[in-house]
Amino acid sequence: MQTDLIPVTAADAEPRALALLEAGAAIALPTETVYGLAADATNGTAVAAIFAAKGRPRFNPLICHVPGLAMAGRLAEVGSVAERLAEAFWPGPLTLVLPLRSDSPVHPLATAGLSTVAIRAPKGVVGRLAEALGRPLAAPSANPSGRVSPTSAEQVLRGLGGRIPLILDGGPSSVGLESTIVRPERDRLVLLRAGGIDRAALAAATGLPVVDPAPDAALSAPGQMTSHYAPAGRVRLDATNVEPGEYLIAFGAGLVPGEEAAAGVVNLSPAGSLAEAASNLFAALAAFDAPEIARIAVAPIPHDGLGEAINDRLRRAAAPRPEI
Ligand code: TXA
Ligand code: MG
Fold it and tell me: What residues pack around ion ligand 2 (CB closer than 5 A)?
């Protein structure tokens, strides 16, 4: 299959995207978090095209992207806490896991048969296309399953070129990390995945405590597989030195001992900004995702604010890999 890559600003970009979505295709689209591989969430064949292009395990449910609260209310029961969160953060990097409505049009392949559905209103073209289509767009990150999430159109092309018909190029993703996933409850927020909106912002917007899922609730966010975002080489975290032959992902102004001898260095943010580091993280992992790069050391990243999400992604990139 030929994969066309065109700027999202081109006059024919949105009409072509809309025609492909109406025809049940899966196409790659920019969002503020990462690039998504989108298809009509109400069409089982279209959703299956996403799984096929990604090579993704089918039990893993997808996020449904909507223009805003009105469409969300047709898919799920939106309670008052969810409404407050949507008003505070949509459009933006927040996904809400809500009870599925009994008359929800979302195809069960997109929810993996769960009784809940994950919904987010992103910034930009995805919301406009969902509005024009009149239906939600299911979209996981536009990478082959288990690999680094793409934050540029070129990165999507490298991973999925030949497997999808169209990529809209919106430039580098501004947030650079996937959305925060929250399950709102009456008197608390359960943080299922750290992401582009940090704990403090969630608490401030609602006045509610933000708690972690119970440790045995491994399936509360079934996509949270341990190994993920993995480059080809082995990743060593919290490195306070660089060993011979290692590549280094650095953070902040200080030099890591041995850094001068590193095989290659990418600094996520020389100024020590966590927002800048978040936006550069996946590009750094992708830059070092090459067969000849066997070992990658990562300097310690502070854990506060967006550091929680950055460290979560790094732990998964470093986790032992299942052989698949
Ligand atoms: O920023 C993002 O969220 C990006 C962009 C494209 O929107 N999307 C993204 O999708 O990261 P994906 O498929 O890579 O991750 C979706 C996560 C998975 O961990 C999945 O298990 C979880 O959302 N999820 C989906 N539906 C769920 C549900 N009903 N309950 C709990 N977790 C759910
Ligand atoms: Mg993903």
Answer: 141
